[in-house]
Amino acid sequence: MLLVALAVGLTSAQAPLETSVAGEAPIVEPRLPGPGDELQLLGLFQTRITTTSVETTSPYLDGQVIGTLGGTNGTVVAGNRGTFAEQRAVGFGTWAPHVLDGRASLTAAFEIDFVLGDQSYGVGGNTGGGFGADQVNLQTRRLHANFVGGAAGWDLTAVLGLQFLSDTVYDPRTAHPDDLFRTGGGLKIWGSEGAGATVFGRYDGPSGETLRARLGAYTLVEQGVSLDDDISLVVGDAQWVPDAGWRLGGHVWWLRDRSEGQGTVFGTGPYSALSGLQGGPQLAAAGTVGSDLVWLAVDGGYNHRLDRGPLGFSALALANLGRLYVDGAEDPAVRGLLVSGDVRYRYAPGSGSVVRAEALWSSGDADGGDYGGVITGNSYGFVGASWTTHGSVLLLPDPDAINRQVAVAYDVSGGGAGLLALAGGVGFDIQPDRITVSGNVTHARLGTGEALGTELTGRLQWQPLPLCRVGLTGAAVLGSAFPSVPWTASASVNWVLF
């Protein structure tokens, strides 16, 4: 599992490709590259030591442990305490040959991660920290070509291949992290790698950026190449910027599933064990054929990056519609709703001196044969969606996790029952942009009214070097249904290099 927040953040640190000046002939004469000019390299190193009451009991999920706390991933909270250390290194490389004058480039990214002491002299991802090492564990995270051009006043970028698939209009290669976390679906519906083609467009008017657009098509699961048994996704997004800082977006995403529930060892779709493992719906039906699903969303806000003043806010309203196809039974309809919003205010110098509040509500499964909840990418792939801005680490998924990401409510569907989540926090920069202390409170309950708990979270973060963050985090979930209190404490180092 790639850390969504930091991985996207480090990809956003890549400089946009240079283009020719309008009206001038492109430079085609080869020239020697300057330092870091033709070949851009970017890396992420993470290490974390964790002590927690969350215990892993499944011998089959020892490399990567994800999903619902207390669910089918074998995690329990029984009063025992465990301590472990993890490490990850991710390398991103973009090669932009000078002969093409910035009009084309190739990007690749690879990852190695493990728990210290886990395995050696074997083969498998998310392992390889055992004595002797020599594990075959290189994981491919990106492999795509990028082409830059323009037409009718639009700046266009085409991305072909294995790429980060988000649910926003922004190009993840050049976006600010808040562009991905606080616009569109905010990675709550789609937020993982996908193979396909995407075209990103930006139109600048007299006063600057006016419109953005995205059109993409991806094959999520390919089985028999001559059979209609695949899962594909088509996305279309547009965003209007009426004034500096303000934005209004519209989104349409269509998923066509004819996989008959196949595609991973846990299956795929809202009937699958994969969906149930990751906190999505696991509907009870046999003979699943597939589905046609559409997500219709509008979002808007002001100053979502907090770079145009101290106040910023964002909001999202989404409808998930469609039909599930089942052999030997009536095909149930899907009618799910989700709304969310957040507001932040910077009250003192430093990027960490922020007070914020956030809320999310999703509808739950209705009585009868139809499904009244939402479906996310967690029903179709491992860590297919990840809500990152809430500030929780146990009640909701921890965006800083390496290979152990479990939460009481792992998916925004609340397991199909619906979810209400409220989060608030305040941070203060003791030394602006160097030392930050923060506290967070998160409460969640299912659409049935059942309380999932309230998490209290505290953090201390220090930045001794540029883009190097050392942190201490502690959290506990009160009022949960577990026999003892779920809690965790960790010390971590996150370092972005380029």
The CA-CA distance between the termini, in Å, is 22 Å
Secondary-structure element pattern, one letter each: HEEEEEEHEEEEHEEEEEEEEEE
Could you give the count of β-strands? Answer: 20
User: Which class do the helix and strand fractions yield?
Assistant: mainly beta
Q: What is the overall pLDDT average? A: 90
What are the segments in which pLDDT stays under 50 over at least 5 consecutive residues?
A: 1-36
List the helices and strands and how they pair.
Elements: H1 4-12, E1 39-56, E2 65-68, E3 75-95, E4 104-115, E5 139-151, E6 154-166, H2 177-181, E7 191-205, E8 208-221, E9 231-240, E10 246-257, H3 273-277, E11 288-302, E12 311-326, E13 333-346, E14 354-362, E15 404-407, E16 419-431, E17 435-446, E18 451-465, E19 468-478, E20 487-497
Parallel strand pairs: 2-15
Antiparallel strand pairs: 1-3, 1-20, 3-4, 4-5, 5-6, 6-7, 7-8, 8-9, 9-10, 10-11, 11-12, 12-13, 13-14, 14-16, 16-17, 17-18, 18-19, 19-20
Textual characterization of the structure:
- The structure is a single chain.
- This protein is mainly beta and 498 residues long.
- The protein has one domain: Porin (Beta Barrel), CATH 2.40.160.100.
- The protein contains 3 helices and 20 strands.
- It has helices at 4-12, 177-181, 273-277; strands at 39-56, 65-68, 75-95, 104-115, 139-151, 154-166, 191-205, 208-221, 231-240, 246-257, 288-302, 311-326, 333-346, 354-362, 404-407, 419-431, 435-446, 451-465, 468-478, 487-497.
- The strands form 2 sheets. It has an 18-stranded antiparallel barrel. A two-stranded parallel sheet has the order 2-15.
- The model is unreliable at 1-36 (pLDDT under 50).
